[in-house]
Design brief:
Shape: globular
Strand content: 5-15%
Mean pLDDT: 88
Distance between the termini: 18 Å
Order of helices and strands: EHEHHHEEHHEEHEEHEHHHEHE
Oligomer: single chain
Number of strands: 11
Structural class: alpha/beta
Radius of gyration: 22 Å
Length: 393
C-alpha cells in the first residue's frame, strides 16, 4: 500500500525562477488521478501559473483556475464525488465489491455498465427515446446539459477571465478538422469552451461556439504540451505533465486486457512521441542560440541568418512526467468506469506520485549549458504500488 501521509515538502529555492505549468490530458474517469496530483501541488511551493487541459483535463483545469487557491481541492473533490454517485442504483448495489478480486471486478463491470446505460449524475445522460423518433437521429448517444450546470455551479468563470491563472483548453473544429485552443489570455472563457474540449464523439455532442462546432481535442492530440512550450513569446517553464495512460504494461492475458493495452498504447505513444520531439526541438533552438552568439556581425546580417534568428530561443524547459501506473489491470472500460472507490484509489495514487516527485525535485539539479529542455520521470523504474484511499468518501 502507498503511504498517504502528508509529508513535509522541501521549500522551493528562490534561485529556481521558472514559471509552473500544469498540463492535464484526456482520459475520462481516469482524471481523478490528476485531481490527486493537484492536491499534492496545492501543498507545495509549485502552485501552477498556467493550467492547460484537454477533455477531462480541461474540466479539472477549469476547477483549478476557476477557484481561489484555498478552495480548489475542495471543488475538485466535490466534482468527483458528485459524478461518481450512482444515479438510479443505490450505493448498496456496489457493496459486495469489497469481497475479493472477483467481486471487485464485477463491481467495476457494473459501474461501467451503469455509465453506458444510465450515464453519470451531474455529467451526462442517455438521450430520451423521443430524440430518436420522427426520422431525425441525434449526433450523439448522450446529452451533456448536466455538465454545463455542474460547471456553472463549481467554476467561477469571472475568476478565470480575471487571468489570475493562465487557462487554456484544446478542441477540434468539426468542420475544418483544425485544432483550436481557447485561452483566457486571448478570449473570454465560457462553460462551452470547457465542454467543447471534452465533447468526445459519438458519445457526446459537438459544442457550438461563435457559429463553429467543436469536438474533443483528444481526437488530434491528447496533451496540450506543445501549446505550452511553443506559445510565443516563450518563457522558461517547469511543466508538470500528467498522463493517465502508461506506455509500458504486462502482456495481456484476456480480451479485456488486450483492449486496455491497445488503448494505453494508442494514447501514450502519441504523448511520448510528442514529448520527445518537443524536447529535441527545444534543444535545437537552444543550440542555435549558442551558435548565434559566436557568429560575427557580417554573418548575422546575411539573409540566410534570418531563419536562425527567428528560430533561436534562450528559454529552458523542465518537463516532469507523472504517469498513472496502476498495480493491476483496470479493464478496457477504465476510462468510463466511475465507481466511487476506484475514483478514490486513483486520486490517492496521484497524490502519492506527486508527493514523491516533489520530494525528489530533480529539476533543481543544474541545467547543463548545452541543454534546452529535459524530461524527468522518477517513478518510471519503481514498481507500481496499491494506493489506499486518500479522498474522504
Amino acid at each position: 500500500m502507498i503511504d498517504q501521509t502528508v509529508k513535509a515538502l522541501p521549500l522551493r529555492p528562490t534561485s529556481y525562477t521558472k514559471r509552473v505549468a500544469l498540463v492535464l490530458q484526456g482520459g475520462g474517469a481516469l482524471g481523478s488521478y490528476q485531481a490527486g496530483v493537484y492536491e499534492a501541488l496545492a501543498g507545495s511551493d509549485y502552485q501552477p501559473d498556467w493550467v492547460a487541459g484537454i477533455s477531462i483535463g480541461a474540466i479539472n483545469a477549469a476547477l483549478i483556475a476557476g477557484n481561489a487557491p484555498e478552495q480548489r481541492v475542495g471543488k475538485l473533490r466535490e466534482f468527483w464525488r458528485s459524478i461518481t454517485t450512482p444515479a438510479g442504483w443505490t450505493d448498496t448495489t456496489f457493496a459486495f465489491g469489497t469481497g475479493g478480486d472477483i467481486a471487485s471486478a464485477m463491481t467495476k463491470q457494473m459501474s461501467a455498465m451503469h455509465a453506458l446505460v444510465l450515464g453519470q449524475p451531474n455529467f451526462f445522460a442517455p438521450r430520451m427515446p423521443a430524440d430518436w423518433w420522427f426520422g431525425r437521429a441525434p449526433t450523439s448517444f448522450y446529452n451533456t446539459g448536466a455538465l454545463r450546470s455542474t460547471l456553472e455551479r463549481l467554476v467561477d468563470f469571472d475568476r478565470i477571465n480575471a487571468r489570475e491563472t493562465r487557462f487554456s483548453v484544446g478542441a477540434v473544429n468539426v468542420r475544418t478538422g483544425n485544432f483550436a485552443y481557447f485561452d483566457n489570455a486571448q478570449i473570454e472563457i465560457r462553460p462551452e469552451h470547457v465542454m467543447a474540449s471534452g465533447a468526445l464523439p459519438p458519445g457526446f455532442p459537438s459544442v457550438e461556439i461563435d457559429g463553429e462546432h467543436y469536438w474533443d481535442g483528444g481526437l488530434v492530440s491528447n496533451t496540450p504540451l506543445q501549446y505550452v512550450i511553443e506559445y510565443f513569446p516563450r518563457r522558461s517553464h517547469l511543466v508538470i505533465q500528467v498522463d493517465v495512460f502508461p506506455a509500458r504494461g504486462a502482456l495481456p492475458e484476456n480480451l479485456s486486457q488486450v483492449s486496455e493495452r491497445d488503448k494505453d498504447i494508442r494514447y501514450s505513444s502519441r504523448t511520448r512521441a510528442g514529448t520527445d520531439s518537443l524536447r529535441r526541438l527545444h534543444d535545437l533552438r537552444h543550440s542555435i542560440n549558442q551558435l548565434w552568439e559566436k557568429l560575427s556581425d557580417d554573418l548575422r546580417s546575411g539573409p540566410e541568418a534570418k531563419l536562425l534568428d527567428d528560430f533561436r530561443c534562450v528559454t529552458t524547459m523542465d518537463i516532469v512526467q507523472l504517469i498513472y501506473r496502476p498495480v493491476a489491470p483496470q479493464g478496457q472500460s477504465k476510462d468510463y468506469e466511475f465507481d466511487r472507490s476506484t475514483m478514490q484509489t486513483r486520486w490517492a495514487q496521484g497524490f502519492a506520485d506527486a508527493q514523491a516527485t516533489l520530494m525528489a525535485a530533480p529539476w533543481l539539479a543544474p541545467m547543463p549549458p548545452e541543454v534546452g529542455a529535459r524530461t524527468f520521470d522518477i517513478l518510471a523504474t519503481q514498481p507500481a504500488q496499491c494506493a489506499s484511499a486518500h479522498v474522504h468518501g
